[in-house]
Specification:
Length: about 120
């Protein structure tokens, strides 16, 4: 999902969705992700993964990198909103849902596959 929102409207969208859930007597769970280029050290070698900040292709490469986030959230029936390198993943929680079920659902969505 490529966002056309400003920071303010992005926050208002998420706030609106959560307030709407609360009006329906639900609770809400919100996970805030800050996706930035990662540095990984393997056997004393530093491998740079990510998008060079300030590069001409940076915005395009970042969109390619973060595009699967929406598909993953949708597959797990979670709401999400992306703005720049920030992603909000959230869900309305019906009154009879246990926190264990919520945690299990969020963990399944946010699990990082182990490279092997």
């Amino acid at each position: 999902m490529i966002s056309t929102y400003s920071t303010e409207t992005a926050l208002l969208k998420v706030h609106h969705d959560i307030a709407e859930a609360l009006d329906r007597k639900c609770m809400a769970a919100l996970v805030l992700l800050d996706l930035f280029p990662a540095f990984v050290v393997i056997e004393d070698n530093c491998l740079n993964f990510g998008v060079p900040q300030g590069s001409a292709l940076g915005p395009h490469k970042h969109c390619l990198y973060s595009k699967p986030i929406g598909a993953i959230c949708t597959r797990h029936n979670l709401l999400y909103h992306c703005y720049a390198d920030d992603t909000h993943v959230y869900m309305a929680i019906k009154p009879k849902t246990t926190w264990a079920d919520v945690a299990k659902k969020l963990e399944a969505c946010l699990a990082i596959p182990v490279l092997g």
